[in-house]
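Researcher: Here's the sequence for the chain we discussed earlier.
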Amino acid sequence: MSELDSFGAWLERQLRRSRVSQAELAAALNMTRAGVSAWVNNRALPRADKLRSIEEFFGLLPGAATSLQDAEKRAVQRIWYHRRAHPDGGREFGNAAAFAFEADLATLAREATQNSLDEGLDPTRPVRVRYTLHELSGDHLRAFKDHLQWDDLEPHLRAAARHRQKVARVLAEGLRELDQTGSLLLLRIDDYNAAGLTGPEYDDGRFAAVVRRQLDSRKVEGRPAGGSFGLGKATLWANSRLGLVLMNSTLSEPYEGHHERRMIGRLDLPWRRVDGEPFAGPAWLGEPDETPGFRRVARSWWADEETARALHLERESQEPGTSFLIVGAHDMSNEGEPGRSDLAAMHTKLVVALADNFWAAMTAGENTPPLLQASVTALRNGEVVIPEQRVEPSEYFPAHVRALKAYLDGDTVDRLTAVDQVALARVPLLVPPLRGTGDKPMEHRAVLLVTPADDSDREHSKIAYMRGSRMTVMKRRPREVPLGTDPFQAILLAGYATGEEGPEVAAAEAFLRASEPPEHDRWDRTEELAVVYARGALTRPKTFRADVDAALREIVGRREVQAKGGPSVLRELLQLDTAVGTRRGEGYPTVRHLEGAIDDTGAWRVHIELRIPRRDDPWVLAPVAWFHGQEGGQATITWAELTAVENCEIDGENLRVAPGVSSASFAGITEVSSHLVPAGWARLAVDVRRARGART
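Model: Thanks. This is the structure I predict for it:
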């Protein structure tokens, strides 16, 4: 932006803030309105004496008109603007986008960090993301609430909490905890080397997509973005018990002549009535906008350093990026009582979640920088209680890091002959053309990396599927791996995750993104594939997975064909089946993954992961096991032991899953006396059914 452009935007902002017309300024400066118009419209610049007069007229400090800063003698006025209720009586009792994800820290870390990666600026340097937990109490809390204008905000929070819907219940619990404990937890997410919230207040741009809109992803074509639904940002508000997020952005592209400290707050509440007046839901903390058509709407303001510190949104440098402050942060999956001891648990959960989801983005080659650096710290009233911990991917996924680093450094082999080697195979993905174009399919050659597992690996012998900026979409066990295969780790890089360029890479990236549901947790049949792509697109993800499995088997060893009773037969017995043919619709819990082995007593020891549809009531489920080929009431196998693993509890022979949970897992040991045949003679199947007497 030129000096002329910068001054015109700066002067227009001063006129708007002071509610002064161009004619009024012209009269005060003893000049024509056309002269002021020429300044505003970038056709001329004022002389030095006029610059000083402009500063005096607007009450600015000397030099403000030259530096083009706001350096005001008066503080910028801030208001809470609450959107009025719809005139037709329509009401919303929560942001639907927020219900697409669980309100827990692991989900937040995945979605927020992926958004930061998607907005990376300089590809030669990593995006830096820092999470800061900060507990406030006493004078520190009172000072923060004063700057937040709590007296204007609290009546709306209290009114919204009186409803009976889920959002209101969460809000009521947040207010109760604040009242009883006198403490408030903040979670700040800072990113650097990112684009920042650029663009105008209300028109198209990153700022409006995050602050003003829902389901606007603002992904740039041709870039390795993760999401495509615009849902991920909703996790910021979902993880606030008060529905409140404050923002401070340093822009990569100036707006109104400014780069630093573009600040605003957004509150997401359900419909409410305050002092007899109905309000629709969202509210914004900002400077009152005097632009015609937006009068008294709160817009972003250019804050000073003192205000940024008071709102706990100060940034460490002028590097572009954004700081999001979640006010009243909480972790829905935490079953303990809220309190100070939670800081350590939340700190650990964030570190683990960042490692689980972004170890690949944090891996560097000899001449290839990592895409991401991430760290977590915790404070209490401004004092460090847990020092900043940088997430080191090799500490959590040593074999995976070894495999990816070998690929980045060009140090792979065709066959594994040593424990430190990494094998590479190319797997074709035939991308169908767009519907109606008449184009031919394009072949993308994805990259499969395989290496021996590390002794410290928590799980092994799965394939991690990635695209975009090395985003892990899913992990799954390959089918028909030969018996006796040594534990391994495998990575499938597709689309932009390969680090390659070309039309076939872009086509594969777009196709795979279209094959993902909003959770971005698998490649499967979707409505978008059916609508956008030519015939055959719906079966292509399944074919691709089968080709990946075949390529992996070629690396780890060919399957032996032996006589009955040999290893191949035993391998068939170990292919645990998730009751194909008993799969229910999306409205009922289903088995997502089943793994296990036969122990020395002849019992099956299994670990089962469930997909749970969200609802407001708990699920009460009965896990049922049987041997394939022996279905029927008398053939049902009883459980010797059931153990809750995650997001559920054992109630006798049933599982109880809390409301709002999307996944759960449990472990079980079968009762040998209930086996009609020895365990090694048949495959085990497990299903979950409604417990007797339980509501659906």
